[in-house]
Amino acid sequence: MFQALTSILAGNPLITPRLNDGVNVHNQNSVVAAIDIGLFTDPADFKQEVDDTIDALKRLLPCADVGFDDVLMPGEPERCPRRTQRQWHPPAAGYAAKTARCFGAVRDPSA
């Protein structure tokens, strides 16, 4: 369903050409939607359910064997490399290195 909203509705289908013809074209699509949650449920109840879902997801075991020590929510990976860069690296440091350090794949050289 999300694929339909973010690519078919936008006039730029991504999965169908790959499935039908084997064509693998990388594109970015997105959708912005304004939803009045109050039409479906009480907004305070909705917020509590979202918070409870995040809490439950954060309690899952991370994939430690590949260097993850936390289950991350949307936006968290993007915040961590910026913090890592400010702490350990000059501004020109590569994104991959920052992300690797964020997830513990590479240790802080000053530690």
Give a verbal description of the structure.
- The protein is mostly helical and 111 residues long.
- The protein has helices at 2-8, 15-21, 43-58, 76-88, 95-102.
- Helix 4 (76-88) packs across helix 5.
- The protein is flat and about 40 Å long.
- The protein starts with a helix and ends in a 9-residue tail after the last helix.
- The model is unreliable at 87-93 (pLDDT under 50).
Keywords, separated by commas or semicolons:
single chain, 111 residues, mainly alpha, 5 helices, flat
Count of β-strands:
0
Q: Please give the count of helices.
A: 5
Sheet bearing the most strands, described? none
How many whole angstroms does the radius of gyration measure? 19 Å
Strand residue content: under 5%
Specify the helix fraction band: 40-55%
Structural class: mainly alpha
What string, H for helix and E for strand, traces the elements in order? HHHHH
Distance between the termini: 46 Å
How would the global form be characterised?
A: flat
> What oligomeric state do these chains adopt?
single chain
**Overall average residue pLDDT:** 75
The low-pLDDT segments are: 87-93
Concise structural overview:
This protein is mostly helical and 111 residues long. The chain has 5 helices and no strands.
